[in-house]
Amino acid sequence: MKKYKQRWVIKAGSSLVASSVRGLDDSFISSLVKVVKELKHKDIEVVVVSSGAVAQGMYDLHLNTRPKSLPLLQASAAVGQLGLINLYQNEFKKFSIQSAQVLISHSDIANRGRYLNARHSLNTLLSLDVVPIVNENDSVATDEISYGDNDSLAGAVAGLINANKLIILTDQEGVYTSDPNKDNSAKLIKQINLDEDSFSLSQINLEGSGTLGRGGMITKIEAAKKASTTGCVTWILKGDKVKEILDSESNLSGTKIISNKNSFNQESNGLSQEESLQVR
């Protein structure tokens, strides 16, 4: 059985995966799958956390706006999840890669027994050389379906499998000092150190989510905090630059988020002791 050197979690947001107007974005998912294939060739295990079920369900059900009622949201998720997972599986099959659907709710993470079961399931799938495709169990979720666009779930999954790296793909270039759509002086933050006294959420733009997404930058920062408890470094990247994941960290164009307090993975990830906020 092949032994992998690292474990990564790649999270794809709703605005990248699907829309209520066009349905699933075949091109993006195809590109993401190709990146996962190349990472596996580099001896990196990958778990994909993918949003998009609700958006695809809205497309299938001809809903123009995101439903406000919980039952209709759950119905949209149930309809959309089928098409979402089928597309991922078909793309992975092109490269003879086995994938698996894993639906997890926040209550699964909060309950100790179910937490251990989820970790065991993910670890077993990875040991079998299977790529888990994780999504919130939105079809039966309650409050979870309206929160976080899977950002929180991605951070939890990174902790579950002791991931070395969490990559959050979104519709933004990364974390900015202010909204770049409204402020020409807004600067992209190259690196955030969560432990530095100089770091404050007031320094960054916490907005930046598509109309179908549920989370802005605040949920992504919180996901990075959650992942950092096991030494995981987080990158926030724009989805149309997904192929950059294959490059060295020095060539990545997004925002890196680290924590020095939990540093057992940092040496292997090539982290340096830099300023808590670096803009470019």
Helix-strand blueprint:
Elements: E1 6-12, H1 14-17, E2 18-19, E3 23-24, H2 26-41, E4 44-50, H3 53-60, H4 70-93, E5 99-104, H5 106-110, H6 112-127, E6 131-136, H7 151-160, E7 165-170, E8 189-193, H8 217-228, E9 233-238, E10 255-258, E11 277-279
Helix pairs in contact: 2-4, 3-4, 7-8
Overview of the molecule:
With 280 residues, the chain is an alpha/beta fold. 34% of the residues lie in helices and 19% in strands. The protein has helices at residues 14-17, 26-41, 53-60, 70-93, 106-110, 112-127, 151-160, 217-228; strands at residues 6-12, 18-19, 23-24, 44-50, 99-104, 131-136, 165-170, 189-193, 233-238, 255-258, 277-279. Strands 5-6-4-1-7-9-10-8-11 form a 9-stranded mixed sheet, sandwiched between helices. α2 (26-41) packs across α4 (70-93), α3 packs across α4 (70-93) and α7 runs parallel beside α8. It is globular, with a radius of gyration of 18 Å.
What is the compact description of this entry?
This protein has about 280 residues and is of the alpha/beta class.
CATH topology title: Carbamate kinase
Shape: globular
Q: Which structural class matches the secondary elements?
A: alpha/beta
Tell me the Rg in angstroms: 18 Å
> Do you know the CATH architecture?
3-Layer(aba) Sandwich
* Largest sheet, spatial ordering of strands: 5-6-4-1-7-9-10-8-11
Number of distinct beta strands: 11
Order of helices and strands: EHEEHEHHEHHEHEEHEEE
Supply the CATH superfamily name: Acetylglutamate kinase-like
Q: What is the CATH first-level class name?
A: Alpha Beta
Structural domain count: 1
- Low-confidence stretches are 209-215, 263-280
End-to-end Cα distance, whole Å, is: 43 Å
Strand proportion: 15-25%
